[in-house]
Amino acid sequence: MTECTIEKLFYYPVKGCKAVEVESVELGPTGISGDRGYLILRDGDFANLKSVPELSRISVKLEGDGLRFVAPGCEDLVHIRATEGNEIDLQFYADQITVMDQGDSIAKWLSEVTGNQLRLATLTGCFTRNLPYDILQLAHGLEQDGFCDLSPILLVNGATLDEVNRQLSADIPVERFRCNIVVRGLEAFAEDAIKNYHCGDLTLSHVAACERCVIINTDHVTGEMNKEPLQLLHQTRRIKKGYSSGVRFGNYFNVSGPAKLSVGDHFIVGK
């Protein structure tokens, strides 16, 4: 029996902005409560760190019924979720969804901080993922109430990052990979063969490897773009028949049902 331990837990109130590291999370079939519940818009499309690397400067913290937006050198802004507003039809990867604009005050703040004309949006309701590809069949038809890229949980093996850093003689932090769960106790790259993680009544079921883009080259503190680690991973972790870049680091999982996970909890892994 192989076990591993949860070392870190993260969620992202706003897609593209800084992670919030926590000691425990509540999660269910749609993922971690509050994860990627807000989306940044630019020029009628959704924005991320690839298109607006300046988002890496923005921290978002829960505060009462709202969110506190924080950026260096700027006055904080507390935003209360708008329940009425302009509805916008949006292409989100392969899905057509409807989002609600969150108003001019937060739009002005985001635009001034980043130097881009940005707006903030939320979903008007759940939507069903349209991913009719063999490699992504376990994510096709998944009900989603936030803006995760593929499926609700992204898990990274800390030992694999250690090995990447060893090969680069670097100290790239795990935050670059925008994961939800970091585990310890596995050998480097052992996650490639793992199909599920069990903790009590909870099961995380493997959907697909996370195929990486230049976002992992973005310094999550400064927003500066580098060549690594994507260049190394392209040489060592790329498969020919992927669904995107083919450059694998981390894995996506579906969630069996409601549960609570905490740092220090143990997973039993299945292959």
CATH superfamily: PK beta-barrel domain-like
| Overall residue-averaged pLDDT value | 94
Q: Report the span from N to C terminus.
A: 10 Å
Quick one: how many beta strands? 21
Label the structural class: mainly beta
Gist of the model:
Helices cover 11% and strands 38% of the residues. It contains three helices and 21 strands.
Describe this structure in words.
- The protein is mostly beta strands and 271 residues long.
- It has a single domain, classed as PK beta-barrel domain-like (M1 Pyruvate Kinase, Domain 3), CATH 2.40.33.20.
- Helix content is 11%, strand content 38%.
- It contains three helices and 21 strands.
- The protein has a seven-stranded mixed beta barrel with strand order 1-16-15-19-18-17-21. Strands 6-5-12-11-10 form a five-stranded antiparallel sheet. Strands 4-3-20 form a three-stranded antiparallel sheet, with no helix packed on it.
- The radius of gyration is 18 Å and the shape is globular.
- The mean pLDDT is 94.
